[in-house]
User: What shape does this take?
Amino acid sequence: MYRKLLIEGTIEVLTGMHIGGSDAFAAIGAVDKPVIKDSRTKEPIIPGSSLKGKLRTLLARSLAQSIILPEANEDKLAIRRLFGSSESKNGEEKILRSRLIFSDCYLNNKKELLATGGMTEVKFENGIDRRTAIANPRQIERVVRGAKFDLRIVYDVHNENEMEEDFTNLAQAMALLQMDYLGGHGTRGSGRVKFNDLTVKAVDGRISSEQTAMLQECLVKGVN
Assistant: This one.
């Protein structure tokens, strides 16, 4: 029977985070690499596509049997049923709808950040040409440490017998992200995040409170 579960929580930024926006029309003297912002509020956001893509990649690396990752449509079934796949190959049906539906994550502590300096910062970096020793300075905008974003993921229940495994794999991907980074420039310190206050609830009430409590415990323990 087709049902939905709602996963909610908070993504806390632990180090400045850069998820790039468009700089196609940047004025002279403007920041070279701005962060992506909500066109309506001008506040930074975490696109659902960025979060989904990073979680899938980390989980695929974790479950892969070789250093070289397969194409997304060749991922293990456990990954494809969570994140989806879009083609059939060699007569094998591999088109699967994603069980996870990611929403864009919006800032929820704007007032706190504005009271302590602002929602974003500009980080100055220099790239040095090894042959000429000429510096190439650049300005990178980052969401500031301490920013918090609302997390909202909907899980489509297709098979109750697979729910625990799906939530275990999702928790593993989220735990890996906490040890990795979200966005760009992660190897230089940007993009560390933490998941807080994770909850799971049935949208339509047709899944027992015992089941949702078990899945929430599975997610929280796996992430922490």
User: Anything to note?
Assistant: The beta strands are 3-13, 45-46, 100-102, 105-106, 120-128, 135-143, 148-157, 193-202. The two ends are 31 Å apart (CA to CA). The CA atoms of residues 18 and 142 lie 5 Å apart.
